[in-house]
């Protein structure tokens, strides 16, 4: 896994076609039998401005960035220095620039990496309608060993709508680029070819945000109310047309207060409902989340986390909404908090989260983040684990119905409009069993106990965490940090170290029993998280018994965790 | 085998619960409860297929006093919850209710957008120009010189909000004003609003005898049925320009496309999943 990967960065001015070339390279690599990951980065401009595509290709499934890049291909020098911190290079890395571009910035000239210039614009000018980014695509495709037929198939798919001339010009450009690169390979001795294995498995190309949307549909969601916010919008934009196809619908709300209350209304009506937002939106929704807990209306809110607080860094990832997701609700409000641990797991975790919310009749928050949501991954088609919304409903014609009946499981069969005899008032006020408002101590204690009991007693099965490997050191993490942690552990395994990985998918409720079992034989722990104030570590400390010898690697966004820094930290622990 | 049962028509009492309201004796909201249940009875809407949705405030307690499905949510969000319910369950009859503080202050944004969106539901606002549940503060409809609140001892100094004008300019397709002192008239307006296809807004002047005792005078001031119904925006706007807020009747009704997306399942999940395949 660690040997067979190649990391390529492409940068350029707005309109240079960086993202187009990047995505085509990724898709063509997948066509050719590789796996890959592509992360986008751009300047603060609404449209245009400099852009960067970070691509990692591999012969095996891959879902995090490497420590450094093998190739940095600058279509031009436009503001490339803005990406400097995101572009770690090695002495044997190669920076490729355009011969025609003048005055490379010091970030390039001072780089430890080797540098080479290619006739990018000049080659594009040789072709009628030729574009430098297609020359670039050809160069990178050749360097990575992606055959022409895979590149051609992707060009045909993407450029179908633009007409024959555009397709031909692009194809000529790619071919010319491949020729330029074959000279380059011998000239600088660059070999980025990856082993390509034949597979009969269906491959998917998707982002975490699309995966979350698909998971919601698989889980049975048929209603969404939406207010746009970076970096969650793509979940909503994906759901809008796709909900329509399966008999559901999406409403664009006037604000997040409306969107969350709309899904509470839809779910009160019996339709599994979801919304997606980011930190600022989640903050606005917390009052209504308490209502969903109190009135026992199942809803799912996906929070695609970004740098905070406040507007923070909207286009970059961080895990710092953990505290508000766990503790943001007023009153004693037991609810579900989950976190997908990879782009493909956004699908499963979204589906499972819908299932939990519906089964437990409560609010569930899924903590995704920008790096999962907006990165594109090539994965094997995931299996459908058949978690579908299944709410416990009362029979039509029920008599003496008690909406909030005190049951052993804590789950009280629900009525939805249309069920005769089930007419009740869902309420943010504390209620008696019969749903009538009550301020009596007896009812408050009983209902608080019931709402806690249903969450605590539920059997969450094996899905509460991913537990991999054995060792007396455990690395405990969650969310998007899982992938670099996993890769760090793999690397250390090759050096003979044995380390256990525990990645929590269920953040709340805490499950001390299963956690203790997972920690058997562990006497040292490292908690890795993408926050500044060690939110995850402090939470773990408050709900679980951790070894005395527990260390923390906490780093806020915007820069991603790279496996190497986790390897270094583990080595430091000795 | 089930025997067909001859259903007796439901009366307004069938739409009332046996739960005793928290309202003060003499509160206008008793009449509005009667009017809403009368309207439900007039239209013979099955209890299990209707829902009364509210936020927070004295009048927002109304769902519990009915026998239909209800939702007593959080302050200001009745219209949002009602919109979600109606869009997800278009087969239901949905009535949102609440007061002037809930609807025009904390929920003001939702009011505008509900008028624009034109979901087929009814919004009944019991307007007493005061926050009653928190013991008497000025609301958006309180006259600027009202000095009865400790919170604004010199009056608010802020122009009152005109709900009908806002509804008209925001695009509501049915707008009416009623009076709690005329429960039969109010019931008729609410029934007409519920039959309207689209978003219908009914303001009911509903006196607060506790914190605005001077509103007892409303029964002398209100002019029943003075408003002439029109489908012309200009005529309705011109009427409101000189209206003192104490005339009742239907102000405006028009037909425009209602917000109800079609919800027809025509794809399988695996067809959608195929779009991820390379």
How would you explain this protein's 3D organization?
The complex is a heterodimer of chains A (574) and B (278). With 574 residues, chain A is an alpha/beta fold. Helices cover 37% and strands 21% of the residues of chain A. Chain A has helices at 18-31, 106-109, 120-125, 132-143, 148-159, 164-188, 208-219, 233-245, 256-268, 279-295, 322-327, 345-360, 370-373, 441-457, 482-494, 512-518, 535-543, 563-573, and strands at 5-12, 35-42, 51-58, 69-74, 89-98, 114-118, 203-207, 223-226, 249-252, 273-277, 299-305, 336-338, 363-369, 376-380, 425-427, 465-468, 473-478, 499-504, 506-508, 524-529, 549-554. In chain A, the strands form 3 sheets. In chain A, strands 6-5-4-1-3-2-14-7 form an 8-stranded mixed β-sheet. Chain A has a 7-stranded mixed β-sheet with strand order 9-8-10-11-13-12-19, with helices on both faces. In chain A, helix 5 packs antiparallel against helix 6, helix 7 (208-219) packs parallel to helix 12 (345-360) and helix 9 packs parallel to helix 10 (279-295). The radius of gyration of chain A is 26 Å and the shape is globular. The two termini of chain A are 24 Å apart. In chain A, 56% of the residues are buried. Chain B has one domain (20-143, 150-276): Thiamin diphosphate (ThDP)-binding fold, Pyr/PP domains (Rossmann fold, 3-Layer(aba) Sandwich), CATH 3.40.50. In chain B, 30% of the residues lie in helices and 14% in strands. Chain B has 9 helices and 7 strands. In chain B, helix 1 (29-43) crosses helix 6 and helix 4 (108-117) crosses helix 5. Classes of the chains: A alpha/beta (574), B alpha/beta (278). At the A-B interface, helix 1, strand 7, helix 7, helix 8 and helix 9 of A face strand 1, strand 2, helix 2, helix 4 and helix 9 of B.
């Amino acid at each position: 896994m660690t040997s067979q990967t190649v990391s390529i960065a492409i940068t350029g001015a707005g309109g240079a076609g960086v993202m187009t070339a990047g995505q085509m390279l990724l898709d063509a690599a997948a066509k050719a039998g590789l796996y890959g990951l592509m992360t986008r980065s751009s300047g603060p401009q609404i449209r245009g401005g400099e852009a960067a595509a970070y691509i990692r290709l591999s012969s095996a499934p891959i879902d995090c960035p490497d420590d450094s890049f093998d190739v940095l291909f600058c279509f031009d020098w436009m503001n490339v220095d803005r990406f400097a911190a995101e572009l770690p290079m090695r002495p044997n890395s190669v920076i490729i620039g355009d011969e025609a571009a003048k005055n490379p910035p010091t970030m390039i000239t001072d780089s430890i990496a080797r540098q080479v210039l290619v006739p990018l614009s000049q080659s594009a000018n040789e072709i009628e309608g030729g574009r430098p980014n297609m020359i670039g695509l050809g160069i990178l495709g050749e360097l990575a060993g992606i055959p022409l037929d895979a590149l051609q198939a992707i060009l045909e798919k993407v450029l179908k709508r633009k007409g024959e001339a555009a397709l031909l010009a692009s194809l000529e450009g790619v071919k010319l680029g491949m020729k330029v690169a074959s000279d380059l390979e011998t000239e600088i001795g660059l070999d980025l070819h990856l082993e390509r294995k034949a597979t009969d498995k269906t491959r998917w190309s998707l982002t975490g945000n699309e995966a979350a949307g698909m998971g919601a549909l698989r889980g049975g969601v048929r209603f969404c109310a939406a207010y746009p916010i970076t970096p969650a919008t793509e979940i909503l934009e994906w759901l809008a047309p796709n909900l329509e196809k399966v008999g559901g619908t999406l409403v664009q709300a006037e604000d997040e207060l409306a969107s969350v209350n709309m899904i509470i209304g839809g779910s009160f009506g019996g339709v599994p409902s979801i919304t997606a937002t980011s930190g600022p939106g989640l903050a606005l929704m917390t009052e209504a989340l308490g209502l969903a807990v109190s009135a026992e209306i199942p809803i799912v809110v996906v929070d695609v986390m970004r740098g905070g607080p406040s507007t923070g860094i909207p286009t970059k990832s961080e895990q710092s909404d953990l505290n508000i997701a766990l503790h943001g609700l007023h009153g004693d409000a037991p609810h579900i908090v989950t976190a997908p641990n990879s782009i493909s797991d956004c699908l499963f975790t979204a589906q499972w989260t819908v299932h939990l919310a519906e089964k437990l009749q409560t609010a569930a928050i899924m903590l995704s983040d920008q790096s999962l949501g907006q990165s594109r991954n090539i994965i094997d088609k995931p299996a459908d684990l058949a978690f579908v919304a299944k709410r416990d409903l009362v029979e039509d014609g029920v008599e003496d119905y008690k909406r909030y009946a005190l049951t052993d499981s804590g789950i009280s069969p629900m009525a939805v409009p249309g069920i005769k005899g089930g007419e009740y008032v869902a309420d943010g006020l504390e209620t008696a069993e019969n749903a009538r408002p009550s301020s009596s101590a007896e009812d408050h204690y009983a209902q608080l106990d019931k709402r806690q009991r249903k969450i605590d007693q539920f059997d969450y099965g094996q899905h509460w965490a991913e537990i991999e490997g054995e060792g007396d050191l455990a690395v405990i993490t969650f969310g998007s940090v899982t992938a670099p942690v996993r890769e760090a552990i793999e690397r250390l395994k090759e050096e003979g170290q044995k380390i256990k990985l525990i990645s929590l998918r269920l953040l709340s409720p805490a499950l001390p029993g299963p956690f203790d079992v997972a920690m058997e034989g562990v006497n040292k722990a490292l908690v890795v998280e993408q926050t500044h104030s060690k939110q995850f570590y402090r939470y773990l400390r408050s709900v679980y018994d951790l070894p005395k010898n527990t260390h923390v690697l906490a780093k806020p966004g915007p820069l991603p965790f790279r496996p190497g820094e986790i390897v270094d930290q583990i080595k430091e622990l000795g | 085998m089930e025997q067909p049962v001859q259903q007796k028509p439901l009366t307004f009492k069938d739409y009332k619960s046996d739960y005793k309201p928290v309202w003060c004796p003499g509160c206008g909201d008793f009449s509005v409860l009667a009017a809403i249940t009368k309207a439900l009875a007039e239209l013979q809407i099955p209890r299990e297929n209707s829902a009364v949705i509210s936020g927070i405030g004295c009048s927002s307690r109304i769902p519990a006093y009915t026998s239909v499905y209800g939702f007593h949510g959080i302050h200001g969000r009745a219209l949002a919850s009602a919109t979600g319910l109606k869009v997800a369950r278009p087969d239901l009859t949905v009535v949102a209710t609440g007061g002037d503080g809930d609807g025009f202050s904390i929920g003001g944004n939702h009011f505008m957008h509900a008028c624009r969106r034109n979901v087929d539901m009814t919004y009944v606002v019991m307007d007493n120009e005061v926050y009653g549940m928190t013991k008497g503060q000025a609301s958006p409809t309180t006259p600027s010189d009202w000095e009865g609140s400790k919170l604004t001892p010199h009056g608010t100094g802020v122009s009152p909000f005109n709900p009908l004008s806002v509804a008209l300019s925001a695009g509501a397709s049915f707008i009416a004003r009623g009076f709690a002192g005329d429960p039969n008239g109010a019931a008729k307006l609410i029934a007409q609003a519920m039959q309207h296809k689209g978003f219908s807004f009914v303001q009911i002047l509903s006196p607060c005898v506790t914190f605005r005792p001077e509103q007892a005078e409303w029964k002398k001031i209100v002019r029943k049925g003075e408003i002439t119904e029109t489908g012309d925006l200009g005529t309705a706007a011109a009427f409101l320009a000189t209206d003192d807020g104490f005339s009742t009747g239907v102000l405006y009704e028009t037909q425009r496309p209602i917000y109800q997306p079609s919800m027809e399942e025509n794809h399988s999940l695996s067809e959608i999943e195929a779009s991820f395949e390379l």
